[in-house]
Amino acid sequence: MNVYYLGIIFIILGYSFRWSWWLKNKKGLKVLVYHKVGYPPKFSKLKELWVTPENFEKHISYLLRNNYKIIGFSDLKKYYDESKPVDDVVLITFDDGYENNYLYAYPILKKYGVKGNIFVVYNTIGKTNIWHNPKTEPWLNMATKEQLIEMYKSGIIEFGSHTMNHPKLENIPFEDAVWEIIESKKQLENLFQNEIISFAYPYGNGAYNEKIRKIVKENYIFDFSFKQGITPWPWDRENFPIDRLFIKYREGIFDLKLHLSKGRNKIL
Q1: Which of 56, 70, 226, 230 is the most exposed place for a label (fewest CB within 10 A)?
Q2: Would the pTM of this model clear 0.70, i.e. be above it?
C-alpha cells in the first residue's frame, strides 16, 4: 500500500480513538444532565449548554427504542431502598430551571409519557439566570412558579434543589453554604408541598468537600455531582455523590450511545 495512504489510515484511526468506543462497557446508574433546551442566541459562547428540541426528542426516542426505563427521583428512591439493579434505568436531569425546559422539554417528555427531573435555583424562579456573565450569553428567563407547579402536578416532572442562588459552595462562608443547601429545600417543599430528596451542586463545586457534603447528606437522600461518569450500583452514598453524563449541543445519537455504555463519549 502507498505510504501516503497508509499514513492517512493511521491518522483516521488515531483520530477515532478520541471517541470512547474502544473502552470497556460500564454498568451502573446512568444520569443524563441537560441545561437549556431550545436554540442558542446568536454569538452565544455557551452553546455546549444547549440542546435543540429536535435532538432532545431524538434522545428520548432512542432511549425508549432501546428499552431504557426513564424514571424520576421518587422512582430512584425505590430502586435504592430495594437494592434493585439499574442497568436499564436512565434519569434525565436539567440544571437550573430555565423557562425553555417548560416550553420545549416538558411537551416532549409529556408526548412520550416519560419523566424528567429539574434542579431549581429557588431565588431565580420567575427571574433570570443572573449568575451568568451576560457577555457570554444574554440572560435567559427562568421558569415561573406557575409553570413549575403545572409540571409538577402533571406527574411528568420531579424537582430537586440547586441551592437558593447558584453559588460555588466552597467559595462562600460555610454558614452561607449551609443556608443555601437547607433553605432551598425548605422553600421548594413549601412550593410543591412535597419532600425534596435530591440536590445538585452548582458547577459541581462542593460535591467532594467533606463538610459541605455532610450537610447535604443530612438533608437529602440523593446528591448529584457534575463529574462525568456512570455511578457504580449499589451506590456508596457514604463516600461518593452520584455522577452524571453531560449532554452537549453538537452531540448526536452515537455520542449518546457512548455516554450510556462507556460513561463518556470522548477521551480528549
Answers
A1: 226
A2: yes
